[in-house]
Amino acid sequence: MQTIQANNYPVHFNEKGYEALNSHLKATKYSNLFIITDSNTNDYCLHKFLPYLETDLTIEIIEFEAGEINKNIDTCIEVWKVLTELGADRKSLVINLGGGVVTDLGGFVASTFKRGVDFVNIPTTLLSMVDASVGGKTGVDLGNLKNQIGVINVPIMVLIDTQYLETVPQNEMRSGLAEMLKHGLIFDKNYWEQFLDLNSIDFTDLDELIHRSVAIKNEIVMQDPTEKNIRKALNFGHTLGHAIEGYFLENTTKTTLLHGEAIAIGMILESYISWHKNLISEAEYHQIKSTIKSIYDDITFEENDIQPILDLLIHDKKNEFGTIQFALIEGIGAIKINQLVDNELIIKAFQDYKS
Q: Which residue among 138, 168, 198 closes a domain?
């Protein structure tokens, strides 16, 4: 499968990725090598990855407990301490082997340790393959506020190997699928239409679907690496989705949502808003709503849930001068950024979601 050239780094697929990594290790004089994993990828993926490595470097494994709840600065401090204790220096290489939590946190750790060391990302979940693999965003959450602390800094390379998906549960696969749906809705109507009937999809072609999703995100990011303009399109579904995800994460009476589960709700809500701002037709809205609801379980929102979710919107990273800005779809396959939306319309979107 053809390598995708991202912003100053390549995204390799399957066997080609390991060949590229080993060539890079031979050509570059690193002092040592650190592999950052979480408890899941340490158990299920590390033993698949290590045999591919061809190096005489000392390899150290740094593991932290899996889960979004551990994507915070406290975990970073522990990893920085371990790197220091194990003798990491500016010539060390960090390999992040895991899902989006690992690549986000590991990329941030590498980008800030001794003012930056080289790192490679090897995403092991569908979500991290189609989303975290491109764009150079690294970082951690601040309490229940998603990705509030971080930097944009690109890896040396990204390796996408779909064999790791054999270890991923179905709910995690659906979580990743949400970002693929988003890529179709904001950029490629034909790609979106491939998902209208999941029963008709030949998932033996999953590699091709992933490759197209990565290519779509990369095409957008290449135009706007630091998210000053069109890259905001990638936040469709995320303004409300992140607020919902954060609210459910901190609320002990709620079942924590996976990222893609929250984004799926966010895409329905923001499609409703797009319809009521005359950016899409009613038919397009109902197609989006019915398609997404056919894939994801309905989530119950009580009346007293809505205001706390609205309160979290003020912390969204797209906001400027205290104004909440949405990226909305303008017809399926196109986007309109920097859209202002009042709370009354957001509340109506929640009401419609529940109907």
A: 168
Query: How many structural domains comprise the chain?
Result: 2
Q: Across-strand partners of 60?
A: 34
| 161 vs 210: CA distance, rounded Å | 10
Query: In the sheet that 118-123 helps form, which strands lie side by side, from edge to edge?
Result: 4-5, 10-13, 157-160, 118-123, 93-98, 33-38, 59-64
3-state secondary structure of 336: strand
Whether residues 296 and 220 fall in one domain: yes
Residue 246 is part of a domain; what is its CATH number? 1.20.1090.10
**DSSP per residue, 245-286:** HHHHHH-TTSPPPPHHHHHHHHHHHHHHHHHHTTSS-HHHHH
pLDDT, residue 320, reads 58
Find the mean pLDDT for residues 163-187: 95
Asked if 118 and 208 sit in the same domain, the reply is no
pLDDT for 203 = 65
- The pTM (predicted TM-score) of the whole model is 0.92
Question: With contact defined as beta carbons under 8 Å apart, do 291 and 240 qualify?
Answer: no
Residue ending a domain, among 168, 185, 211, is 168
Tell me, what amino acid is at 92? S
Q: In the structure encoding, which two tokens stand for residue 217, read together? A: 């995100």
Give the domain range for residue 331: 171-354
Nearest of 188, 197, 174 to residue 291 by alpha carbon = 197
Average the pLDDT over 29-39 and give the result: 98
Question: For 205-227, what is the mean pLDDT?
Answer: 94
109-138 pLDDT, tens digit per residue, is 999 999 999 999 999 999 999 998 899 999
The closest of 105, 124, 107 to 48, measured between CA atoms, is 124
> Is 41's pLDDT higher than 60?
yes
In the three-class reduction of DSSP (H, G, I as helix; E, B as strand; rest coil), residue 202 is classed as coil
- The arithmetic mean of pLDDT across residues 30-54, rounded, is 97
Mean pLDDT of 147-160: 96
Asked whether 47 and 167 are in contact (CB, 8 A), the reply is no
| Contacting residues for 315 by C-beta, under 8 A, at least 6 apart | 145, 148
